[in-house]
Amino acid sequence: MNTGSMLEKTRLDVIVVGGGAAGMMAALQAAWAGAKVLLLEKNEKLGKKIYITGKGRCNVTNVADTEDFFRQVPRNAKFLNAAVRQFDHDDVTSLLSMLGTETKVERGGRVFPVSDKASDVTRAFARGMKDAGVQVELNTAVSHIRKEEGGFAVDLAQGGTLHAKAVVVATGGMSYPSTGSTGDGYAFARENGHTVTPLSGSLVGLTMDEKWPTLLQGLSLKNVRVCAQMGKKKIYDELGEMLFTHFGVSGPLIIELSSHMPEDFSSVSVTLDMKPGLTAEQVDQRLQREFAENVRKQLSSVLVTLMPARMGPVFASLCSLSPEQPINQITREQRMVIGRMLKALPLRVVGTRPISEAIVTRGGVEVREIAPGTMMSKAAEGLFFAGEVLDVDAHTGGFNLQIAFSTGALAGRSAAAYTE
Ligand SMILES: Cc1cc2nc3c(=O)[nH]c(=O)nc-3n(C[C@H](O)[C@H](O)[C@H](O)COP(=O)(O)OP(=O)(O)OC[C@H]3O[C@@H](n4cnc5c(N)ncnc54)[C@H](O)[C@@H]3O)c2cc1C
Question: What stretches in the chain show pLDDT beneath 70?
């Protein structure tokens, strides 16, 4: 980048740091509002994380209404009120359509590009920014953001300092660091007087401190139900697919569960229902029938009709039984234990996998220090935050990108208005 000369001398209106979903949206909106905008992205291309979203198809938003949207945001949902109301899922899809990327709605209200290509989303923004006159500089990492007279000094890792009246920090969280989200924005927030709440992974696999899941590593269970209970309160109850891994459990049901878990895992009991279509009574009737039909066989020959063959021996041992146990020696109490375990097998989860493996970061810039109506810092006037760098995260379904787009749009518009 030729920062040594031209740009260093120019006083820009808005510098946007980070060319992901939130940053590209902020830059576009600020430019549309009349500001002279520069976007700095440390990677060699824009939107590296967008490319891997929705398994390469990019679940760009969700058609859920605003109230439902807020239910999908487990923490700090109220903070997003203004941002989402001024730029919702309709605004996202209209904007993409205007920029040449049509979208379609799929199961659960999830919205994807018609082309099923995440790259079309980034391309649309790149085109939009070019037409709006946003200057984009790739391979340009910001190292510090410092308040100065009349605005901010933005130091570049490669040397040189740029100046702008307003800065939007849209550097993302800490998950999938190979996409560029390495947590730089937290340092920028701290050096400008902000608090960063504790960081952990959300939408991520859960670890267990028992050995048995490792024995089932790679086994996926379909059409099962996972429930989580905190005291008397049910905090999660969903049907779907889960996976056993070398660390514990993962797969869609568990990943979703992770965003419902409180900080203290010990207060939650998680159970797996392997027969969600049957009541406990029906499960017992089924067991009685199977036992009667296989009276001369071993327990394993019945378990194989109830679960994947690999799981039988592990399941028997969790019921304190041997798979070789002759059916005719199984007591009524033992049969009741088998039934109970089929309906509510305890999954003793103790923690999450590292943030680097998570879909999103939980925690971030303390939202009470940010004005929700503008996304401007209350600690450093003229500094704005947008996207995953903030302490907001949501469940799966397109809601995290919607957060990035809504906060990005608000931060971009507000930053432009601030510089007028
Ligand atoms: C595997 C995976 C799949 C996902 N699928 C979906 C999905 O389908 N739907 C959904 O809603 N959400 C999905 N998400 C979550 C979603 O991608 C993120 O929440 C969203 O991209 C966050 O956007 P952002 O702009 O805040 O941050 P990012 O997309 O992380 O962008 C931040 C940008 O800032 C740049 N940057 C960082 N530091 C600096 C610096 N110092 N100087 C210059 N540039 C810097 C980075 O290189 C990066 O390009 C997925 C996440 C993952 C990991």
Answer: 1-6, 9-10
Cα–ligand 1 centroid distance for 174 (angstroms)? 9
The whole-number pLDDT of residue 9 equals: 66
Q: Which tokens is 294 given? A: 């296989």
Please report the atom of ligand 1 found closest to the CA of residue 57.
Answer: 8
Longest dimension (CA), the chain: 89
- The alpha carbon dihedral of 272, 275, 281, 285 has a sign of negative
Its pTM stands at 0.92
Pairing of strands 151-156, 161-169: antiparallel
CA distances to 34, 284, 287, 290, 315 from 327, rounded to whole Å, are 78, 15, 11, 10, 15
Tokens of 391: 């302490």
Closest residue by Cα to atom 30, ligand 1, is: 172
Say whether domain 7-201+360-419 belongs to CATH 3.50.50.60. Answer: yes
For 118-176, write each residue's pLDDT tens digit.
999 999 999 999 999 999 999 999 999 999 999 999 999 999 999 999 999 999 999 99
Distance, in Å, from the CA atom of 175 to the CA atom of 181, rounded to the nearest integer, reads 6
Atom 23 in ligand 1: which residue has the minimum CA distance?
21
Residue written as token pair 């701290």: 190
Domain ranges of the chain: 7-201+360-419, 205-352
CB 180 near ligand 1, within 6 Å = yes
| Substitution site in 401, 402, 405, 407 for ligand 1 pocket (most atoms within 8 Å of beta carbon) | 401
Contacts of 61 by beta carbon, 8 Å cutoff, 6+ apart: 89, 92, 93, 111, 398, 399, 401, 402, 405
Coil, helix or strand for 122?
Answer: helix
